[in-house]
Each structure stands twice: as C-alpha cells, then as structure tokens.
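We include the pair:
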Amino acid sequence: MDTASDRSASDRPDDLPDGGRTPAEHDRGSEHLTPDLDDAGTRESSSPDASPDSAEDAGAGAEHGEAAHDHASHNAESRRDPTLSELLAGSARGEQPSFATFYEATSDVVYGLALLMHEDAEGALDSTLAVYHQLWEQADERAQDLRLQSQASELLTDAHAADEQDPDDAFRPSEYELVLEWLVPLAHRIIVERFREGLATPIRLTVVSAEEGGGIAGLPEEIIEDISVLSDSQSQVLALSYLAGGTHQQVAATVGSAVPAVKSRLRDGMTRLHARRTTREAELDPILRAAVTKKDVERSGAVKRNFTEDIATDVENGLLVELAEIHALDAIDNRERAVLDEAALTANDAVARAWDTRVLAARRTLAEIFTAYPVVPPSHLLDEVLHNLSDQDVGMGMVESISSHTEVAPKREPVVKRWMIMSGLAVVILAAIGLIWGLTTGQDIQATADDDPEARVVDGIELSEGGTARAVISNAEGVGYVDFSDVGELEGDTTYQLWLMPRDEGQPSSLGNFTASELEEEIVTLRDIEANRALQITVETIRGEERPMGETAGEIELRERVTDGPQYGGSVDEDQEEDE
C-alpha cells in the first residue's frame, strides 16, 4: 500500500479539542513541513547590511527579527496544504474544492479496490461513484467518524507500542494511512452492500474441488502471490467473502462446508496473512504483534469446535474476540453486525481492547493487500461525482495545486484486470468442473453413510504423528466420510495430504493438503468407494504432489479384508470377532 510518510502530519481542524491535537500527538509531537519563507522576516533581519551599529540598535533589531520571524511563521503555517482530514471536514461545511481535492487524493485507492471486486470496469466505476456520493451526502457524520477513529487508532497503537522493547522505533501510521484505514473499510462495505442488493456484479470466482487441485479460479493476478500463504480452503472462503461480498453462510453453501468451519477458516486465514506481514516488514506494527500471538498461529482445534451456526450464540458463548476478523471482512449481514457492535460496546475493557486490536490489525492487513494496486479512475468520473452538487465554483486550480502535494507516488493509468485463467477454453472447462463438483457436493454424503444400517464404522484409527480418526463407510451406497480428532501438529510448512488409492495400478487421486487444524475441522467425504481400496494420509514437504512422496501417517481400508490378519486402522479384537 502506498504510504505518505513524507506528508504533513499537521494539527487537526480548530473544532477539535485542544487545538485539534490528539492525545497521541501530545506524547510524540506533530511533524510539520516547513515551507520556504518569503523575502521578509528572518531573511531580511539576518542580512549583513541590516546590522545595527549599537547595542540598543542590536536589541531593537533582534526584537524586530523575532517579530518578523513569528509573523513569517504564521504566514507559512496559514499557507500549508490542508491534510486529508481537514479536507473532509471542509466537505462537511459544503466546500466543494475541499471535497474534490479529497477525491483526487484517494480515488485511485478506492477505484483500484473496486476493480479487484467487480466483474466489469463499468460496475467498478459505478461503485466508486456511490462511495463518493455517500461521502459528500454524509460528510459531516463521516468527518466525525474519521476523527474519532484516527484518534482511537493512534491511542491503541501507542498503547501497544509501549509494550515493545523499543517503543520509539515502533511503527505509527501517517495521516494518510490513518485516512485509508478508515476509508477502505467504508468503501468495501458500500461495495458489498451493492452486491447484495443486486446493484453490481461481483467478480466471478470458481471453487475448484480437491480432486482437481483445490483452491479457487478467477482471482485477480495482482493478489495471487499475496494470498499464496493460505491453504486451499482458506483462500476459497476469504476470496468469496472479501472480494465477492458473500456472508459466511453464503460462502459455506458455495464451498459445501459447515458454517462453523467457514468461520474458523476466515479467522485463521487472516492470522496467516498477519504472520506473513510480520516476516517481511522491517518496521513491525505493534497492533499486528498484539493481534497475532504464537498461540494464534499454532492454534489447535479446540476453539474451532466451539463456533456455532449463529453469531449471537457465539457471542453468548464468549467468542466475541474470535469473530473480529469475520467482522473486518464484512462476512456478516446487517443484523449480525449490529449484534457484534453492541457486544463490543458493552464488553469489559480487556475484551473491548482485544476486539479493537484484532479488527484494526485485520483492516490494516487487508488494506495492505487489496489497495496495493491503486488505479486512477477515468477523468470524467470527478465530473459525475460533482454533477448533482450545487453550482458553487469548484476551483479546479486549487484542486490541482493541492493534489500535487498530497500524492505520494505517480498514479497509474487505468488498466484492464488480468486473470489467473488466461484462456477462454480454460474458463469453460473450470466452470464445468465447478458445476459438476457443486452438484455432487450437494448430496449429503455424511447423512447417506449414516443412514445405511450396514455401513462399516471404524473407531480409534491412530495416526503416526498423533491423533485419531473415525471412519463411516457405506459400500452399498459407494460413499463414506472420515472425522479426525487431536491431529498432531507438523513442523514448518509440512502438511498432511490425503489420497484415494485405486484398486488397480492407476494414479492415486489427491483430496488436497491440510494442516492439523484443518483436518480437525473438516469432515472428509469419500465417493466412488468401489474404485478405491484405501484412504492414505501422508506427510508432504511440498504442496500439490501428484503422488504420495512422504511418509505415511495413516491408512484406512475402504473395503473389509478377508484375511486373518488385523485390518489396518482397526483392531485385532474386531477382526477376530469377525472371523468367529
């Protein structure tokens, strides 16, 4: 994300308490750009030709110099460029030049985000227009929101920075970053609401089944590397929620998983994205460090199983903080948002601080990823933004002057979105695969297996890395499922990979890669039992292997053995009972 560390972090508008200085600024001071003084003032008084000939003249000259310096400083301060916060405050007073300048300074970020989220550029333009129309129409309320959120963000950042070994060296957001920290979530929510109301078309994403390699097709090429750290299931739910605007219930229906599992993936996916930031940023964000602890990164499956189908029930069960990332992703509807906002307002200080920290960390990470590719909107869009406003002279000369100072880097011209699937034929094939997979996934395999009175149930299947599995296999229906518990954590980037091993000498079929926690939260469903002899679990150092390469952690026979030896994954006692 573009930053503005070289921008003026000047005082807030005069209507703020204490001259507009936030409490955080009192602690660390405000930075000001110092404009060049005019020819009067200190330059004149310091000229050698103006030196006094006597002590009295020297004193008078000094007094005159100090007065001139103060006057020049006052003039310089009055001529400084307004901050973005001040421009929005000016918009609240009906100043169109301020609003137009605010638009010029921020619209590339909003439009760039809209391009990532929409199926077509026209929809992205319409949504960008909607964002700035709301900003103008609600400028007074939004300016207050920005002021309060910026103050809260600075205070929270300073509080967590105080816990660092070198508090003075910890990252603090610039004024520009504080504005984006507020504007990007607002713009995202407006765009998401347009999707849900049918006013715009979200990006078309296709869930790819584990059998076909997993993950999700249709992602904008710009963000593929950023989310490559996520597991296949995490990338699916995060893209469908943040980019396509789906609620967690809608995402669960799309990927064919339980709602509690999707909540867990959204939360843990954000944790992974946080962890990636901490490994590559030179100046560590104290908010990020506070939000992502070692416990979060190595979280077991215990908390995941506590999520329910209902947000209100989760809150009653004490899981408010665990829902912070879902709130930041806008993966909730308006009713659920009201429930979470109310719970956060009435929570005790410790819970409220943890909630605020994790929401803020999620928003900073999302802004870093999804606004890293700003695109200048077409020039006519500003005319459309201003079209319904009054006839007040916009003063474009002022806009151009101020915009030249508020830009951090040269803006890029509008570009056409690039997609991961470059060939039209590939898109058709993947869409067909997604349709077929969706239809088969719609069948409730778990219920089908459970309803078979002759289904074989194998309990206590032990894994070599720790943990157990329970399998229910219906040979009559040709389906089954496996539920894992207490799966042992693996070191580094190593993952579990599941394979359907064919009865003949054919190629094994991969069901995907899983971390220990993902295996615990998944119910692994099995189809086409007749064609396969076993489900094999291996430990792989490389994701997406085409055949098992690592050590076998466990294996579950899909058909009963007729030998006298024990059934792999079962027990000797069970086999002896069958023989008798």
Notes: The longest helix spans residues 55-79. The chain is about 50% helix and 10% strand.
